[in-house]
Write a structure and sequence with these properties.
Length: about 375
């Protein structure tokens, strides 16, 4: 292990944010002491792509795994049917309220397993062991759990923070290249909205990141995780400041849904959503051309990413069902400057669609 695992915690946790977040290279070598369950028993939920890390967790919990469930880690599996599969296994194994779930995998695994934990017996504890760059930087942290609906992404869910999050960047070593790079967009997103210095380090570290340099990856992931912990501690239920974490996600979710959740990885869709948000930021918050160019250059460096669907009618249908929409429009997370995000209320649909058409990742 590279030094001891670091604990990332907020200075003033509020509401029901109680997660312990541990990060360190080699942490999966002995994850047992960091996982939380009042009974000491666990339901292990993982994906085929995370079988190695899941086996490591299973070995560490020898004799304490009630049942092991393997689910798909693709967006198409983020459904109530998958939640039912987890619930069936848990109930058949005799799950009790003092037991806990441990989710090992990417963002889909953490979202679905966390949601299952939120509704099993009206709520049991869960632990997140993210194995993708996107889940490490974002999805496994903060307690947003849920599934998609035919009407849109993440429309069914609950706020249910994990009791513990264990991040070992070494788990990303075997990720397919496309998934690895797409997930990094979430880490850069956090830096762009809240930490100019982390953004500078991340942007200057793109080449080492592409080579999967563990030290650089650890620095960027830890920085992004700390930002999310800090913001969520201030606003667990997304009433105010937590909305900043949606930078790139409003149009990103529409792009993702328009592609049937198959054409674009989540991070790729967010990258295009950020590119569109830059267009609106230039008009509404005065983001400089130079800083907008920096963001586009970084996204281009992480890419190339496939082109999204830009059909106005298709995108409009998904934007209209966005959770942040009102009769006056949809709130936008924009940049005033790198490291300083801002929420602008009620951006009209036509402005969103124009930004989607103009979005570019060309430097």
């Amino acid at each position: 292990m590279t030094g001891k695992p670091r604990r990332i915690a907020a200075a003033a946790p509020r509401e029901s944010w109680e997660s312990l977040l541990w990060i360190g290279t080699g942490l999966l070598g002995d994850p047992g002491p960091y996982l939380v369950s009042r009974s000491g028993r666990f339901l292990l939920v993982s994906s085929a792509g995370s079988r190695g890390p899941a086996d490591a967790v299973a070995r560490a919990l020898a004799g304490r795994v009630l049942a092991r469930v393997e689910i798909d880690d693709r967006e198409e599996a983020k459904t109530l049917a998958t939640v039912s599969t987890i619930a069936d296994a848990a109930l058949s194994a005799g799950v009790r309220r003092d037991d806990a779930v441990v989710a090992v995998g990417g963002g889909v695994v953490s979202d679905v397993a966390g949601f299952a934990a939120a509704i099993l017996l009206r709520g049991i504890a869960w632990n997140a062991v993210p194995t993708t760059t996107g889940a490490m930087a974002d999805a496994a942290i903060g307690g947003k759990t849920g599934v998609d609906h035919a009407a849109g992404k993440n429309l069914l869910g609950a706020f249910h923070p994990p009791a513990a999050v264990l991040i070992d960047p070494a788990a990303a070593a075997t990720l397919p290249e496309r998934d690895y790079r797409a997930g990094l967009v979430e880490a850069f997103k956090a830096a762009w909205i809240a930490d100019a210095e982390l953004a500078r380090r991340a942007e200057s570290g793109i080449e080492p990141l592409r080579r999967r340099d563990e030290a650089v990856l650890l620095d960027v992931i830890a920085g992004a995780a700390a930002i999310k912990v800090r913001i969520v501690s201030e606003d667990l239920k997304e009433r105010d400041r937590r909305r900043l974490l949606n930078f790139g996600h409003t149009l990103g979710h529409a792009f993702e849904a328009a592609g049937g959740y198959r054409d674009l990885r989540h991070g790729e869709a967010v990258a295009w959503g950020i590119a569109a948000a830059l267009e609106i930021s230039r008009r509404r918050t005065g983001l400089s051309a130079g800083e907008a160019g920096r963001v586009r250059a970084a996204l281009a460096g992480l890419g190339p990413f496939p082109e999204p669907c830009r059909d106005r009618k298709v995108l409009a249908s998904f934007l209209a069902r966005d959770k942040k929409s009102t009769a006056r429009g949809t709130a936008a997370v924009l940049l005033e400057a790198i490291g300083r995000g801002r929420v602008v209320e009620s951006v009209p649909l036509e402005e969103w669609l124009g930004a989607a058409e103009a979005a570019s990742l060309t430097v």
